[in-house]
Automatic annotation (TrEMBL):
The keyword Oxidoreductase applies. The keyword Oxidoreductase applies. InterPro entries: Ald_DH/histidinol_DH, Ald_DH_C, Ald_DH_CS_GLU, Ald_DH_N, Aldehyde_DH_dom, Aldehyde_DH_NAD(P). Belongs to the aldehyde dehydrogenase family. SUPFAM superfamilies: ALDH-like. Pfam families: Aldedh. It comes from the Bacteria. GO terms for biological process: aldehyde metabolic process. This is Aldehyde dehydrogenase. Keywords: Oxidoreductase. It comes from Goodfellowiella coeruleoviolacea. Residues 1-26 are annotated as: Disordered.
Length: 510
């Protein structure tokens, strides 16, 4: 269905976000990447619109923050049930805007629901007011800690998981008591509106979550709008621009960026399971997954067999536009050029394609490409390809695999297939998250923090850390009774601090 700024359909963006009339407004068009069909037109919100949205969110946020954790949980639980009730609409919208197969969109919905449930259920435990030990020196004090909401959080999202990825920030920020202004990717504005519209239904139309649409300038305006924090998910290059804009007003940022995740196959690994994981991790969602597998390091002793298994599995996959296709199109048209360039460069530099090749690139679709013997400094090994491609490199042992895997400026996720040394290798990988003998499973464990190191960003979504990202610690001491030793007053006697020193010596000398 085509939506325009003047439509009255529930997903039509019209004036709902900012209250400004949309006549004469620049519009962005949203297309189905499988067919090119126009899906909708959305306003390109200006800095004034963004300021307006943030001001309205701040007001709604005061109401939201004043609710108890239990009351917020009720609303978020209701939202979760509504999302499940309207799951078909959301799944269709995700598929239409990204081109991904229906089951991949359903998987995204499953993750959204699980995380939303976890964040709502655990916010009180993680953030709520509690007593903490006051310690020896302040034994006469009651010390309490709580995590208070920041205010309005700006969330800037990508298109590859247009619901799951931003919800990693949105659900946790809301559960922590913040209001959110969300700037979805220009490729997936409808999903953003769907999320905001459904939450609006359960909070009496208050803009606790509102959406601004547009390109990079709208995102930059959100960074400069005075929000209390920006949670950005997208490319490393854009993250630097986001940080520069946020630096102007000392606005804190959380940045979740790209990756070049490695999968390590040790000599004692279950090779069939490793091949299955490498192919799914590398090819699902047409390789457009921040924590997708892009590089494989396999121990020489099992390399031939592993490559055979990967070749057989990857060679069977077919991209297409139908809901049951193995993989969909490349959502962002210009990404096709990067994929083509990585494959061409790898082959020019001595690499060999064991599945596919340059002919696999038929925009908007890319068939699986598996490359071997690619030099470690080729772009296909060093840069994010974001397509259904894998490089497989033979290594002498798992330690060499770890060394090569870690020689990347990225450090988002990782995978290890090994029997004896699984945990040890996982701990040695320079990455925020690692799955042992499965792939990407950490993203589906809501209690595990998600985020990277190096060019993959910093800060954490999901889990307890993900809740605390959107709250500030508030520490309070309350004096219960007066003690004779009072070192923090000008009325202290001359011996007070010396007595204190003796006490400290007795307590901590050994
Ligand atoms: P992108 O960086 O092009 O855009 C991300 C968002 O930033 C979009 O909403 C865009 O409009 C906005 N934006 C662009 N310029 C801006 C500016 N100057 N100021 C503020 N906002 C601006 O990324 P993308 O192509 O949408 O997404 C793909 C990238 O996201 C990949 O690198 C992928 O690895 C990464 N990603 C990371 C994670 C993670 O959790 N680490 C998850 C999903 C995707």
């Amino acid at each position: 269905m085509t939506q325009t700024a003047s439509d009255k359909a529930p997903l039509a963006p019209a004036t709902s976000t900012t209250g400004h009339p949309d006549t004469d407004r620049e519009l962005l068009s949203c297309h189905d990447p499988r067919t090119g069909e126009l899906l909708g037109e959305y306003p390109v919100h200006t800095a004034a619109d963004v300021a307006d949205a943030v001001a309205r969110a701040a007001e709604a946020g005061q109401w939201w923050a004043a609710l108890s954790f239990a009351e917020r949980r009720q609303h978020l639980d209701q939202w979760r049930r509504l999302l499940l009730h309207r799951q078909d609409e959301l799944v269709n919208l995700i598929s239409a805007e990204t081109g991904k197969p229906a089951d991949d969109a359903r998987l995204e919905l499953v993750l959204v629901i699980d995380h939303l449930h976890w964040a709502a259920r655990n916010a009180a435990r993680v953030l709520g007011r509690r007593k903490v030990p006051a310690g020896l020196l302040m034994a006469n004090q009651v010390a309490t800690l709580e995590y208070q909401p920041l205010g309005v959080v700006g969330v800037i999202g990508p298109w590859n998981y247009p619901a799951f990825t931003p919800m990693g920030s949105i659900a946790y920020a809301l559960a922590a008591g913040n209001a959110v202004v969300f700037k979805p990717s220009e490729l997936t504005p409808g999903v953003g509106h769907f999320l905001a519209d459904t939450l609006a239904q359960v909070v009496g139309e208050r803009p606790v979550l509102s959406v601004v649409t547009g390109y990079g300038e709208t995102g930059a305006a959100l960074c400069r709008s005075g929000v209390a924090k920006v949670a950005f998910t997208g490319s490393t290059a854009t993250a630097k621009r986001v940080m520069a804009a946020c630096a102007e007003s000392l606005t804190p940022v959380l940045v979740e960026c790209g990756g070049k995740d490695a999968l390590i196959v040790d000599s004692d690994a279950d090779l069939d399971a490793a091949a299955q994981a490498a192919v799914w991790g590398g090819m699902s969602n047409a390789g457009q997954t921040c924590v997708g597998v892009e590089r494989v390091y396999v121990v020489e002793a099992v390399a031939d067999r592993f490559i055979e298994l990967v070749t057989a599995r990857a060679g069977r996959l077919r991209p297409g536009g139908e809901p049951g296709a193995d993989l969909g199109p490349i959502t962002l048209p210009r990404q096709v050029d990067i994929i083509r360039e990585h494959v061409r460069d790898a082959l020019d530099r001595g690499g060999r394609a064991v599945v596919g090749g340059p002919e696999s690139i038929r925009p908007p679709f890319v068939e699986p490409v598996v490359l071997v013997d690619v030099p470690e400094d080729a772009a296909a090994v060093t840069d994010e390809t974001f397509g259904p491609t894998l490089t497989i490199t033979r290594v002498a042992d798992a330690d060499e695999a770890v060394r090569l895997a870690n020689a990347s400026r990225y450090g988002l996720g990782g995978t290890v297939f090994a029997r004896a040394r699984g945990d040890e290798l996982a701990r040695a990988l320079r990455a925020g998250m690692v799955a042992v003998n499965s792939v990407i499973s950490f993203a589906a464990v809501p209690s595990l923090p998600f985020g990277g190191v190096g060019d993959s960003g910093f800060g954490r979504i999901h889990g307890e850390d993900g809740l605390r990202e959107f709250a500030r610690a508030k520490s309070i001491t309350r004096k219960r009774f007066r003690v004779p030793l009072q070192p923090m007053t000008f009325d202290r006697g001359s011996r007070t601090v010396r007595r204190l020193m003796r006490l400290i010596q007795l307590r901590y000398r050994r």
